[in-house]
Design goal:
Keywords: Chaperone, Isomerase, Periplasm, Rotamase, Signal. The protein has 429 residues and is an alpha+beta fold. It is 44% helix and 19% strand. Helix 2 packs across helix 5 (135-155), helix 3 (103-116) packs across helix 4 and helix 3 crosses helix 5. It is globular and about 80 Å long.
Length: 429
């Protein structure tokens, strides 16, 4: 006999569930244990197995450097299952529209990913197997992303209009605000309904916690974000705060480069922002300067203690202070047994953040303060030349047009996927 549980569900005026005409006092027959989760599903006849979930989970864990707690792995499994369901619906919709992604195209993308890991495709496939995933799992993800882009290209993008005057108006505002701050933003967007808002907020809080503990924002964006930018790790590119919703603009204004926000509530969901970088509109950024450097370094035998290395580090620091131009580097380094490496064409913004301001303040021929560790070695950088950056020209007409178009495509894509979920036959096993 079913067990009835009585619950009071308060009704709010104007609630989105009003159309369902649900009773205020209701009985739930047969309690559902929220701790019991079904791990696999059949989506319109296509089976998603435990193995599919496990192999995709392994990809996420690798992307986060293996730093995913056990409790978070279980939550990730549930999210991955949802993502695999969406991915299946996207591939099925592409097939229904006779939009095919060939094996050759998938292999080409897979091979490019392998090269980014500095591996041959065969070695990359072996590596994926060694970490608990597979080449097939990654190729399936590639197929889903490619298929969905093609669906949007046929069914959404042709019906999105961006006016020439809109773009010109934005360009005029940019020119009028020369010197204003511009932000490179990453975003993870999670949609919700009034019924799921608390659950989605809790999930957003966990994502923020994991990223702050060392998880990769890009990996979480790819796995969790429901925006079209998920495929590129949530990267929105360079934007002005005026281009963002007020809630996001207010948060970004208070953040420094490298920071991640708390979850921000929007109409229809929650956003997590990462400020990747900042610059000034239509103004040359000193960090785009290109440097010619000489690196002078010393290393220590394995097991050397901090105390034992102190004397040699002091001699190295004295040597660095005595360098008088790049022509004297070799002789100065020889006195302390240091190694010298020359490097041209180094952009300031590609240096570690603590070094960027230091190098920008150096005159030609001066050296940075020594830096490093006993384990990795101690080094100094000598500035031999600097090419100043050209004045920034700002985004082009086409770039602004593309951003506006992408924002509108993204909104329609979310509605499209929501319709596919609504009409799908999904059997959880």
């Amino acid at each position: 006999m079913a067990i009835a549980q009585q619950q009071a569900v308060p009704r709010q005026p104007g609630n989105s569930a009003d159309a369902l005409d649900l009773p205020t006092d209701l009985q739930v027959f047969g309690p559902r244990d929220p701790a019991i989760r079904k791990a696999t599903a059949i989506v319109n006849g296509t089976i998603i197995t435990d193995t599919d979930v496990d192999q995709r989970l392994a990809l996420v864990i690798v992307a986060n450097g293996g730093q995913v707690p056990d409790a978070e792995r279980e939550r990730l499994r549930l999210q991955i299952l949802r993502n695999l369901i969406d991915e299946t619906l996207q591939i099925q919709e592409a097939a229904a529209q006779d939009l095919k992604v060939s094996a050759a195209e998938i292999d080409q993308t897979f091979n490019r990913l392998a090269s980014q890991f500095k591996r041959t495709p065969k070695d990359f496939a072996t590596y994926l197997t060694s970490v608990g995933s597979s080449a097939a799992s990654l190729k399936r993800q590639v197929e889903g992303e490619t298929a969905w882009r093609r669906v949007l290209g046929r069914k959404v993008e042709p019906f999105v209009n961006v006016g020439e005057e809109e773009v010109k108006a934005i360009m005029a505002r940019l020119n009028a605000s020369k010197g204003a701050q511009e932000y490179r933003i990453g975003e993870i967007y999670l949609s919700d309904t009034p019924a799921t808002a608390a659950q989605v907020r809790a999930n957003a809080d966990r994502i923020v916690e994991q990223v702050r503990q060392g998880g990769a924002f890009v990996a979480y964006a790819r796995q969790y974000s429901e925006a079209s930018t998920a495929a590129v790790g949530g990267d929105l590119g360079w934007v002005r705060l005026e281009q963002l919703p007020d809630e996001l603009a207010s948060a970004a204004r208070e953040m420094n480069a490298g920071q991640i926000s708390e979850p921000i509530q929007l109409a229809g969901g929650w956003s997590i922002l990462a400020v990747i970088d900042k610059r000034q509109v239509l103004t040359a950024d000193p960090r785009d300067s290109v440097l010619s450097l000489k690196q002078v370094s010393i290393t220590f035998p394995k097991g050397t203690s901090q105390t034992a290395a102190t004397g040699q580090v002091e001699r190295f620091a004295n040597m660095a202070r005595e360098i008088k131009g790049c022509g004297s580097v070799a002789d100065a380094a020889a006195k302390v047994g240091a190694e010298v490496v020359s490097s041209d064409g180094v952009a300031v913004r590609d240096l570690p953040a603590p070094l960027q301001d230091i190098m920008l303040k150096l005159n030609i021929g001066e050296s940075s303060p020594p830096f490093g560790t006993v384990e990795d070695g101690v080094r100094t950088l000598v500035l031999c030349g600097r090419d100043e950056p050209a004045a920034a020209s700002g985004p082009s007409f086409d770039q602004i047009y593309s951003q506006l178009e992408e924002e509108r495509v993204n909104r329609r894509a979310q509605r499209y996927l929501r319709d596919l979920r609504r009409d799908a036959v999904i059997d959880y096993r």
